[in-house]
Specification:
Strand content of chain B: under 5%
Number of strands of chain B: 0
Helix content of chain B: over 70%
Largest sheet of chain B: none
Distance between the termini of chain A: 17 Å
Helix content of chain A: 25-40%
Strand content of chain A: 15-25%
Number of helices of chain A: 2
Distance between the termini of chain B: 36 Å
Radius of gyration of chain B: 14 Å
Number of strands of chain A: 3
Strand order of the largest sheet of chain A: 1-2-3
Oligomer: heterodimer
CATH architecture of chain B: Up-down Bundle
Largest sheet of chain A: 3 strands, mixed
Shape of chain B: globular
Shape of chain A: globular
CATH class of chain B: Mainly Alpha
Structural class of chain A: alpha+beta
């Protein structure tokens, strides 16, 4: 079991792609809005076309995250670019 | 292809309306299926191709359709998809409240998706009728 996370770490890919800058900016926005209720934001290649995985510590903020993401996209004129996969940071194998 | 997607949307919508509200899992899955088929029909109508991945369908919509470059519509589609994913791919068991939340997103999004299909010359009268039945009480 992982202990409490006390620091922030930004890991750069060896081959950055276009969306990486957007993800960095998005992470900054989400940190400002939701603070420690979000655990991580990362580029992702999901089976369903999702391209950003956001792990949350609080499941109740999922809808608010979606709203924040689309507002972020609209401000930049990039609607439909960020396709989130939002997951909860807990071991829910047994509910 | 887009006629097929449109027919499937209509058929699934009819099943959802017949289905009792005591089965929120089946209804939520069905409601997303209707949205996905409408998205598929729209994308095909504009591009003559379709995509398997649900997020790709959502992503293409505002790129292809000016009318869909609308923050509220994209939020609604993303919320509906997240709700479906939460119960199908996670261990969450939906209740009636979750079904009502899903219906709220559906009623907002489907109206707009049907308008886009109507603009493309698709006959949406039956789908609109079904949607009105499912959405009774949502905005009252």
């Amino acid at each position: 079991m992982e202990g409490a996370v006390q620091t922030i770490q930004v890991v750069f890919p060896e081959r950055p792609v276009y969306i990486d800058n957007i993800i960095l900016e998005l992470a900054q926005r989400l940190l400002k809005l939701f603070g420690g209720r979000i655990r991580s934001v990362e580029r992702f290649d999901g089976w369903d076309g999702s391209n950003v995985r956001i792990v949350v510590r609080d499941a109740s903020i999922e809808d608010k995250i979606i709203e924040a993401i689309v507002e972020f996209e609209e401000e930049r004129g990039i609607l439909g670019t960020i396709l989130p996969e939002i997951t909860v940071d807990l071991n829910d194998i047994c509910g | 292809m887009w006629i097929g997607a449109w027919k499937k949307a209509k058929s699934v919508l009819e099943e959802i309306i017949e289905e009792e509200e005591t089965h929120p899992y089946k209804q939520i899955v069905g409601i997303w299926e209707v949205i996905e088929q409408l998205l598929r029909a729209i994308i095909y109508a504009y591009r003559k191709v379709t995509y398997e991945k649900p997020q790709k369908l959502i992503s293409m919509l505002p790129r292809l359709v000016k009318k869909a470059r609308n923050k509220e519509l994209i939020i609604s589609l993303q919320k509906a998809y997240a709700k479906r994913k939460r119960i199908v791919h996670k261990s969450n068991i939906p209740d009636k409240a979750k079904l009502e939340e899903m219906k709220t997103e559906f009623c907002f999004a489907a109206q707009r998706l049907l308008n886009i299909l109507r603009d493309k010359g698709c006959e949406v009268k039956d789908l609109l009728k079904g949607m009105e039945l499912l959405c009774r009480g949502i905005y009252e």
